[in-house]
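Researcher: Last one for today. Full complex below.
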Amino acid sequence: MTDKRSPMTLLSIYGAEFSRWPESRSKGRLSLATSPAFRAAWRNERGLDRSLTGIGADTASAFPADGRMERRLLARMGIADAPVRERQAFGQRTFAGFAAASLCLGMIAGSLFGDIGVNSEQYASENATIWESVLDDEAGSDVG
Amino acid sequence: MANDRAQSIRRDAALMARLSAGEPDAAREIVHSYMAPIARFAAHLLKDSTEAEDVANEAIMRLWRTAGEWRPDGVISGWLRRSVYTQCIDRIRKAGRMLDDASGEAALNVEAREPSPEAAAYGAEIGVAISGALDNLPERQKAAVTLATIDGLSGQEIADVLEVSVEAVESLLARGRRALRDALKSIYRDTNAPAGKSQREEPRRIAT
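Model: Here's the assembly. Have a good evening.
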């Protein structure tokens, strides 16, 4: 469907926010860039949109997002709501469970595949070689 | 966009089937998702947060009681908003505070609710005046403007709520916005008018 209406008409219906227009959004943007008359009308509509958005925020403040209103209704329905603390605790339990599971998996994987990497004897001999060379250098400098 | 709607319809049909089967989690999901938005919509129409909560409660209770009769051709948010709108109109009519669409624009009395000319010079007061002008719109225009601009609903979604065509919604939006623009113009005119004009009543704010 292609909207044949002018951008000015759509502006007067849907306001300055082009994302709310059903069609012809690109035409609206083009008019904004090229038509001074459209630009003036668009500014007026944007002012109206902002005032209306402000009213929306004012109304929203009458309903704090503390879940009380929802709990009252659920109680009327005979359904217990999970308290916020319990919901948070659920999140914490989930994280703790995930961490514990990861640790266990790591230990199991370590016990199964630990020998694939450097074994303990090899590690000890390599470190011994390093320390020996360090000590030899220090000894040499002392002699010198 | 049509795909999004089809997906929403399928998702809501599944949720309603769970609600109908008596799953408490489905009820919790609906209450937590929709209670606040529909209460805000009711508050815009009724200008009273306690009454708005009652209306929103009733809408969700009705949905819950009739879950088994859900037809999978719509979305829950639309159904709830339509229920809220119908209840609000009933309450407004009973209280005798209705402006019908035919006489609404003629009866629109923005003058009586404007802030003082001095106060109108400030941006915040312009918001107050617009709120007053919005209150004075005929109910269907007010609902359409609120749903479009404050709730961000599309023309089709508003048409579903008000049970009218998209063309009718566009007409309501155009007339509503024009009335609000005129209210804004009159505020600016008064701001430049000579001092000593009578102080006017401020619009009613949301009662908390």
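Residues 84-113 of chain A form the longest helix (30 residues). Chain A touches chain B through 35 residues (CB under 8 Å).
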